Amino acid sequence: MALSFLEGNEAVAWGAVASGCRFFAGYPITPATTVYNTMLKLLPPEGGICMQCEDEIASIGCCLGASMAGMKVMTATSGPGISLYSENISLAIGSEIPIVIIDVQRLAPSTGSATRGADGDVQFLRWGSSGGLPVIVLAPADVRDCFTLTMDAFNLAEEFRCPVFVASNKEIAMTRESLDLDHIEKPEVIDRAVYSSGDGFLPFKVYKDQVVPDFLPIGDKSLVRQTSSTHGPDGYITTSPDVISASQTRLMNKLNSTVNRYSFHETSIEDSDTMILTYGVTARAAREAGETMKKEGKPVSLMVLKTLWPVPEELIKEKTKNTERVLVVEMNMGQYVNEIKRILPDKRIGFLGQMDGRLITPQRIMEEIKNV
Amino acid sequence: MSSLLNKSRPPVFCPGCSHERVTKALDKAFQDMGLSGNQIVMVSDIGCSGLFDTFFHTHAFHGLHGRALTYAAGIKMARPELNVVVTMGDGGQGIGGAHFLAACRRNLNLTLLILNNFNFGMTGGQFSATTPPEAQVGSGFLNQLEKPLDICNTARSAGSPFVTRCSSYEKDLDSKIRNAIEYNGFSIMDMWGVCPGRYTRRNKLTPKVIEQELGNFPQMEGEVKENKRMEYSEHYREIAEGLEPLTEPVKMEKQFEPPEIGRKGVMILGNAGQRIITAGEILCMAGLSAGLNATQKNEYNITVLRGPSISDLVLSSEEIGYTGITRPDVVFALSSEGIERRQGMFKNLDETSLVFKVPDVEIPSCTADVRMMDLKGQRIKSLDWALASLAVLAKNERIINIAMLKAAVEKRFKGKIQESALDLIDRVKI
């Protein structure tokens, strides 16, 4: 066994390249910059493109252009950059442009604390775009996840033609960790479905049994239209309520009705009435807390979510069937706990949150469990 | 070649709109160049100029206000063989100012047609970046307070190698557009026109007035000699071709047995410039050489060579969960700045904790086993103290040993740096 030693951001970049990503555009921002640094070393010698743009708006704009020209694209930023991406995220949702967006979360609102971690963007990623349609958000807990979930993110972006976020955190992104790269279980790479029925291509036409339109790149023999306007199958603006209703419903359902297929998680059910539910770097403290409590003869169940959006409701309901009390632990002032309260109205939902630059400790989690 | 105008969606304009002339001239330019629709991408944004992508039977990307140049850049980098034509109004030029400047500086082979009609036509005739202060517009008196932007001068000083200022009514508009498209580099055309729907209802602006006004500006047409240079995507590819591929991350085989098992936390408290982070990495790699798992968390200020620099390191024969360290097994106290940042930690230490400190720093009182490490007395420079600390640790057979440390140094450094690091490790006395 040989171990490598790399940080989460580097693992994201290697995962992206393993997925066939050959286009990256970004703007430097701590703690996401090392994704860009690594892509800059990886892509140009591979014939890929890595651009440093004038701002975050341009970074995602370049990515959307390149994605429509057929490339697998990624950009990476932190909360302040996600704010600037917002209008183009809406475009990627409504106009079905595959893109992977890495959000290396930093502490607090606005420019906050550049070198401190938090998971303060998890509702923002879901709702920070106009129109309110769903997105996919995956949350890594360690360096290995950074690699594999980035690959999953590309697969989902390609399959569903949508933006997929990897909600990283400075505490994973800039923490180096030993990893056996030769023994990572990698998902099989998926490419977007290409239209192959000859002439008559309509860029947003969905055929029977499809939830996502087939793709042709800008530059193909057939003409390809892309538009930010509310459009019909032909890619032209439309005012027809029926056409609009059908497309908005499809955009909603293509993710909400398929999330069971990509509800990534790690769950251990113990003989206990209590479950810790968490995600991101906090999962690591929760695992330790769980192990310690098991040794003490007071086991608790643990659920680590790696798909945050769409909320894997069925999974959560199923796994908490025999649980009376769920303690939601997250590195913010209380965000995902609201989803858990919503879908488990009959259970006691506790909350432990912290957003001060420090990791939540295993001891703190154990105290919280024992307190009640 | 035949017209590329979209017959199923004929262009619709307000009567007298100059955009109609631009549409026809652009179509003529495409025909004269012998281009078919799938060799062209029309990229547009918001406003009346944003309708252009629907007028033509070409590839199209219609996006957000002022951002057309960004999509165009991505498309052109991905598919350099395409003719990418961007249409924006004076509104898009204003809101997308940063992209305009970047495109001029970057010199990617795009053609930007600015349909400049001196106001926001679609939203009610508000003032734009080019509205004259004396104009009567939909923004009350506010346009009187701002100086209009000279697009061409801005483009020129920002580095655009092709700049044309003209009237949308010029007879040879089609050939001017063709020149811009055929130019191998970023080309912009500032095309003045009238907006009969909004602007000319309250302002006298006719083709003739435009011609007169243009006479007050220095003529700009075609290549800007001082900005001539290699096109961006060609230049990018030329340099990229010569770059060496990045090798896979370094792999460390298990070669040794570690002196200790279980989870061990090490904290190096130093300041910037003491190579704290590098030493932390080497300690972890030393652990890897004995099959240990390792994590490294660093803390430092944004300043270089000033302020605290701290590395939190966990080495463990088990998988590492929580990466924080509440009670470290070993602390290296190398600078007062680093110690101060973590002074609260010292109260967590007990007699099993080992603190190595250099003589000239103070640490908070604690119950740990504190040992002096006189590196200065051994004539070791401050910037080598962190690495020397690892040698102290290894020579005490705590967590790592000398063979592990040397294996890490041999993997991490090459040539003379490796030699001097190995020499330093040998020199350190405990």
Task: Write a concise synopsis of the structure shown.
With 372 residues, chain A is of the alpha/beta class. Chain A has 12 helices and 16 strands. Chain B has 2 domains: 19-240, 3-Layer(aba) Sandwich (Rossmann fold), CATH 3.40.50.970; 263-427, 3-Layer(aba) Sandwich (Pyruvate-ferredoxin Oxidoreductase, domain 3).
Intertermini distance of chain B = 86 Å
How far is it from the N-terminal to the C-terminal residue of chain A, by CA? 44 Å
How many distinct domains of chain A?
2
Q: What is the CATH homology-level superfamily of the largest domain in chain B?
A: Thiamin diphosphate (ThDP)-binding fold, Pyr/PP domains
Chain pair with largest interface? A-B, 78 and 69 residues
Structural description of this entry:
The complex is a heterodimer of chains A (372) and B (430). Chain A has 372 residues and is α/β, with parallel strands linked by helices. Chain A has two domains: 1-262, Thiamin diphosphate (ThDP)-binding fold, Pyr/PP domains (Rossmann fold, 3-Layer(aba) Sandwich), CATH 3.40.50.970; 266-371, Rossmann fold, CATH 3.40.50. Chain A is 35% helix and 22% strand. In chain A, the strands form three sheets. In chain A, strands 2, 3, 4, 5, 6, 7, 8 and 14 form an eight-stranded mixed beta sheet that branches. Chain A is globular and about 70 Å long. The termini of chain A are far apart. By secondary structure, chain B is of the alpha/beta class. Chain B folds into two domains: 19-240, Rossmann fold, CATH 3.40.50.970; 263-427, Pyruvate-ferredoxin oxidoreductase, PFOR, domain III (Pyruvate-ferredoxin Oxidoreductase, domain 3, 3-Layer(aba) Sandwich), CATH 3.40.920. Chain B has helices at residues 19-33, 52-55, 68-78, 90-95, 97-106, 151-158, 173-182, 207-215, 232-241, 276-288, 336-341, 385-395, 402-412, 415-427; strands spanning 40-44, 59-62, 83-89, 111-116, 162-167, 187-192, 252-253, 263-271, 293-300, 308-316, 330-333, 354-357, 369-372. In chain B, strands 2-1-3-4-6-5 form a six-stranded parallel beta sheet, sandwiched between helices. Chain B has a six-stranded mixed beta sheet with strand order 9-10-8-11-12-13. In chain B, helix 10 packs across helix 13 and helix 12 packs antiparallel against helix 13. The radius of gyration of chain B is 33 Å and the shape is elongated. At the A-B interface, strand 1, helix 2, helix 3, helix 4 and strand 9 of A face strand 2, helix 3, helix 5, helix 9 and strand 7 of B.
